[in-house]
TrEMBL record:
Annotated protein name in UniProt: FMN reductase
Species in which this protein is naturally found: Blastococcus xanthinilyticus
Keyword Oxidoreductase set for record: yes
UniProt domain NADPH-dependent FMN reductase-like: residue ranges: 6-155
InterPro entries documented for this protein: CE1759_FMN_reduct, Flavoprotein-like_sf, FMN_Rdtase-like_dom, NAD(P)H-dep_FMN_reductase
Keywords: Flavoprotein, FMN, Oxidoreductase
A Pfam family assignment: FMN_red
Highest taxon above the source species: Bacteria
Transmembrane annotation, as ranges: none
Keyword Iron-sulfur: no
Length: 208
């Protein structure tokens, strides 16, 4: 058995949230699909609501807090990525976009990714294709063909979700599993590879 790391980014604001519920369903299905391919999985979840203030500070200062840096390292160092956002005003949430805005250029290049979203009505489902998919294409991630959208009616029968949602979740999870299983494991993150402050700035600050 080989081992891979899966990072899960959830931008839900409420506790509990349908966004986190969908993220958990996708994660469980992906872990099962990878297990069928002889791959064991370590899952690390990043709840963006816990980093709301840190993300705002990062935008204005250019420096992440220790907690935010740890979550960024989790995403950058993972072998695969599941990203789920609520849809606000026909697009991803500002919190979701801000997290990906603070990532360094090209850190998601080639990373297998699955995109998903939640909203109150299925009318917002096209946001996956006109907002999320272009975002991850710009970030140069390798996005699974199937994106998963869950509206309020998909949870009408409880947390198990509708049969149609279950089918989409399984299909998307299988696609992500194929991408992750076929990719070499990500190298461990080097904490000294990209220092927050350049040596030039350090010299200027010390009067050198």
């Amino acid at each position: 058995m080989t081992t891979r790391t899966l990072a899960v980014v959830s931008a839900g604001l409420a506790v509990p949230s349908s966004t986190r519920l969908l993220a958990d369903r996708l994660t469980a299905a992906t872990v099962d699909a990878l297990g069928e391919r002889g791959v064991t999985v370590t899952v690390e979840v990043v709840e963006l609501r816990e980093h709301a203030r840190d993300l705002a500070d990062n935008l204005v200062t250019g420096f992440p807090s220790a907690a935010l840096r740890a979550s960024v390292d989790t995403v950058v160092g993972a072998d695969g990525l599941i990203s789920v956002t609520p849809i606000f005003s026909a697009s991803y949430s500002g919190l979701f976009k801000t997290f990906f805005d603070v990532l360094e250029k090209d850190v998601l290049t080639g990373k297998p990714a699955l995109i998903a979203a939640t909203a109150g009505t299925a009318r917002h489902s096209l946001a996956l294709e006109h907002a999320l998919r272009p975002l991850f294409a710009y970030l140069r991630a390798t996005v699974a063909p199937t994106a998963v959208f869950a509206a309020s009616e998909d949870w009408a029968g409880g947390e198990a979700g509708s049969p149609a949602l279950t089918s989409r979740v399984r299909r998307a999870a299988g696609e992500l599993a194929d991408l992750v299983a076929g990719r070499p494991p990500a190298p461990p993150a080097d904490p000294f590879a990209d220092p927050a402050t350049s040596f030039e700035d350090l010299l200027r600050g010390s009067g050198g």
